């Protein structure tokens, strides 16, 4: 089994053999829906464990407050933060309080410097999600959706923040949630 990580950060496993007489060195695969759970090995129990842990994080009653931001009638919140087997589970809620549905284009996570002063370089590191549980691509008018984003474990150094960007497809109601490192460096274990 060969593990391949593509340029967009997705992980795929393939049984691969090299053939010197092959007429083509490029293979094209059908598009796989983003947010699919990823199988790390031939043992399908990993996928099942990941799905079970995400389901637990989705239904866990323990909530955190104060991690939300919103404008244009859209509110993005982190309602739970958990860690299990070196993976972070961010339970997120997006509420649409407008009469126009919100189509999600991108949800991105970055570790960024707190302040950027003149004439200094700013560092920005993107954290690529491993998977999403109960992923949604659209928030209908006057409704809310909850889902779990699974991220590889990371910590945030002093003077840096976690920034979560939510981009609207064909629209301008983009959201950005900035969280200080102290708020996300203590997830609940399960």
CATH fold-type name: Immunoglobulin-like
Oligomer: single chain
Radius of gyration: 19 Å
Mean pLDDT: 82
> In percent, how much strand structure appears in the residues?
35-45%
Please outline the major beta sheet.
6 strands, mixed
Question: Topology as H/E string?
Answer: EEHEEEEEEEEEEHE
- Principal-axes geometry comes out as globular
**Low-pLDDT windows of residues:** 35-44
Number of strands: 13
The secondary-structure class comes to mainly beta
Structural domain count: 1
The DSSP helix count reads 2
> Under the CATH scheme, which class?
Mainly Beta
What is the helix fraction of residues, given as a range?
10-25%
CATH architecture: Sandwich
Distance between the termini: 31 Å
Question: How would you characterize the overall build of this protein?
Answer:
It comes from Flavobacterium suzhouense. It holds the Pfam family DUF4138. This protein has helices at 45-59, 181-184, and strands at residues 2-5, 11-14, 68-71, 74-84, 87-96, 102-113, 124-127, 131-133, 138-139, 143-152, 160-168, 175-180, 188-189. By secondary structure, the protein is mainly β. It has a single domain, classed as Immunoglobulin-like (Sandwich). Strands 3, 4, 5, 8, 10 and 13 form a 6-stranded mixed sheet that branches. The protein is globular.
